[in-house]
Specification:
By secondary structure, the chain is of the alpha+beta class. The protein has a single domain, classed as START domain (Alpha-D-Glucose-1,6-Bisphosphate, Chain A, domain 4, 2-Layer Sandwich), CATH 3.30.530. It has 11 helices and 10 strands. β8 and β9 form a beta hairpin. α1 packs parallel to α11 and α4 crosses α11. The longest helix has 29 residues.
Length: 360
Amino acid sequence: MITHSASHWSCFINIRRTICAIGTLWFGLMICGPIPDAVALPTAEELLKQLNISARDQQGIREGKIVTWTASEGSDRELAFGMALLAKTKGENIVQLFREASAFQTIEAGLTAHGRITGGGVLDDFADVRLEPNGEDEALRYLEAEPGDVLNLGAEELAAYRTLKSAVKGGAVPVQRVEGLIRQGLLARYQAYRTKGLAGIAPYERKGRHRLLASDELTLATKQAKLVAKYLPSVYDAMSNYPIVKTKEGEAVEEQYYWLNVELSGRPLYVLSHRMLFRVGEAYAVLDRHFYSSHDYNCLQQGLVALPSDDGMLITYLRRVSTDQVAGFGSKVKHPLARALMVSPIKGLLEGLRAKAEIQ
């Protein structure tokens, strides 16, 4: 019989809390017009077969069940899973839900603050970033930060907090000055990604002079999107080559950036999110990429494809998240347990999405 240490179970609970907190934050974004692709889209039945969903599960989907399907994982840090369901609605209704979520018209679990980042970005875009909740405790974490996974910070960021710590006099914790450095760090990371894409993401400094490259994690996640590459090449190209997004006459791509503050286990979790939605004929494809997360996970890439079928819209969802919490010793045991904890809250979110779409 396999036993698990308290630290292992703590890591699983943290993952579950993270997934619950950020689960609904990615639905959103409307495109200006259709994006025709040269490759014909598969039928709903063809797509289910290519996802290796059994005939029994296909029947379950037609009966209203949400089916989980297996996705390969590219490293011991990556957790991946997919789901498929049928929504008896039109694509336009799903797009309306995207719009509502993009404007944050619904209350998201754990979301304490958010802001949209536009153009080249300025510090004022991050004016509402606060060390909340428990500001003094979190400010101390930044001031005492060392290479490791307590906080995801690059070399320049770590140096800035060390400089501030050395300049502090007396016992007071300079919460506002730490907040200022956090805003500067978020702005710098946004600007680097917006101008250079994955190549612009600064690495996280880890112990033993190791570095975690979120860019490599996201590149790996993208390369595994083989069906997207086959059937939605414009989407795949945008995922791979951003900020270079090629368009032809009649094509249009809209994108949005947000910073998010999510309360996680009594701590503020800062996220930089890049969202895109593509319309391909009557089908819709959404991409959400968390190219920065301040702790608990390294990065995240998730997407949804809504494909018309005889009974409504077939929705397939895939999430890939990189976290050190499931890597290393015992990884083969941690992965299935962590996935099991992740599936339930996401299934509930998709049920809610379907219910809203079908009444519109």
